[in-house]
Amino acid sequence: MSPLDTSGDDYRARREAMLAKLAELDAEQARAVAGGGEKYVERHRRRGKLLARERIELLVDPDSAFLELSPLAGWGSDFPVGASVVTGIGVVEGVECVLVANDPTVRGGASNPWSLRKTLRAADIAFQNRLPLINLVESGGADLPTQKEIFIPGGRVFRDLTRLSAAGIPTIALVFGSSTAGGAYVPGMSDHVVMVRERAKVFLGGPPLVRMATGEEADDESLGGAEMHARVSGLADHLAADEYDALRIGRRIVRGLNRRGPDTPARTVREPLYDEDELLGIVPEDLRVPFDPREVIARIVDGSEFDEFKPLYGTSLVTGWARLHGHPIGVLANARGVLFSEEAQKAAQFVQLACQARTPLVFLQNTTGYMVGKDYEQGGIIKHGAMMINAVSNSTVPHLTIVMGASYGAGNYGMCGRAYDPRFLFAWPSAKSAVMGPTQLAGVLSLVGRAAAEARGQVYDEEGDAAMRATVEAQIEAESLPFFLSGRLYDDGVIDPRDTRTVLGLCLSVVANAPFPAPSGFGVFRM
């Protein structure tokens, strides 16, 4: 029985705070959906073209879910929110696929540093989970003013396409418009290529560049038009009459891949006993106030059933077994923020057990990091924290991470933050992540400055110290917020807490497409 009091003042205050954050999230995501804005969207439509998300909607199976990834990429930068590309996972002809669609309403779909990172992340997901990669291409190539940040790392886009193909993972390019310069290698290195008649333009150098380089006069169509590539160069495998035809052919290609979903037995899926809407009132506005993650678990796992592991030991970390949309999972969830030696040892043992059982792990983060202080250092907190991080790093089952609240210090690492390559990582609007809390970080800088002044025999500037603290706290607070972090692709998206079960269910279905690597050669060490 859940002890959560949904009629209490604390619950109502937490719910109102979360709803306010969700309103901000909706506004920022609406900016991403707006692309280049009304003027450029209208111009695109006048040319008889579909928008990026419309192309995706027509490509995926009717009434199926599309899990969009990193919609806030580029947030807070000089580039529009969304970074001129839409990426995500959708079901095409019953097959889960990674989709990458250029948004030509944003600077002609030109690739900037954030769209590059977003595209590379999509390719990583396709490779890790053995999902077909479908590129919906219409791009003017690199954003030239930022070429110094794109040119060298951008070569990985083409390397990834060849690695996917070599691994037997299909790659498909549907070309709706321009795909020039380096972008020409996207269809050039894809297994299957569809081009739209009179719309697709694929060439290494367009007419102006050819004229400058060689003096040759050539028009778009003879240089790189769809008809030419279908009849002369052979680059196009299929010539589509229009965009709708290209999407139909794309679906037909996927149908002919002879791929099935993961061979898993039929699962019984039971809804949680508690309303997902109640997730809005669990996380406090002040993340220093602890909350019980079992209340979250009860609202996302099947039947709200959770078989807790070591419930009386290392109680600041909750571990245990459950099912989510029929998939077995192991859960690690922070209960009181701080990780002590007991929690670290408990986590290391639990992670090894999950590896032995070939069970994916779900990390629910709300941690301020590992405990500091003389007694804890003498008690071995470093070696125990290292033990936990080692177990997480070398675990061979898929990891899924949700940042619910705080994610500070090495706790971010031990609870499988972005640097530890979880298959997917999502954040709630309440999440915050940094090397430490703003107040603590500013306080450390103040103590260091004070000690330095004393060592020089100077009087410490208290007024300057107060100003420094305020500036640092404001900076760290801004840089630890979920929109800022998501804008830099430190997660795969900020989600509504009420969508957590659905998002995790989709991710578990995705990771089941690839076989899990074998566990390590050691048995489980009792910590």
SSE diagram, text form:
Elements: H1 9-33, H2 38-46, H3 52-59, E1 66-69, E2 85-92, E3 95-102, H4 113-129, E4 133-139, H5 147-166, E5 171-180, H6 185-188, E6 192-196, E7 201-203, H7 207-214, H8 220-224, H9 226-233, E8 238-240, H10 243-255, H11 294-297, E9 307-309, E10 317-324, E11 327-334, E12 338-339, H12 341-356, E13 361-367, E14 369-370, H13 374-378, H14 381-394, E15 399-408, H15 411-414, E16 424-427, E17 432-434, H16 438-455, H17 462-479, H18 482-487, H19 500-511
Parallel strand pairs: 3-4, 4-5, 5-6, 5-7, 6-8, 11-13, 12-14, 13-15, 15-16, 15-17
Antiparallel strand pairs: 1-2, 2-3, 9-10, 10-11
Helix pairs in contact: 4-5, 12-14, 16-17
- In the predicted model, the low-confidence regions spanning at least 5 consecutive residues are none
What is the name of the CATH class of the largest domain?
Answer: Alpha Beta
Question: For the CA atoms, what is the radius of gyration?
Answer: 25 Å
The total of helices stands at 19
CATH domain fold name of the largest domain: 2-enoyl-CoA Hydratase, Chain A, domain 1
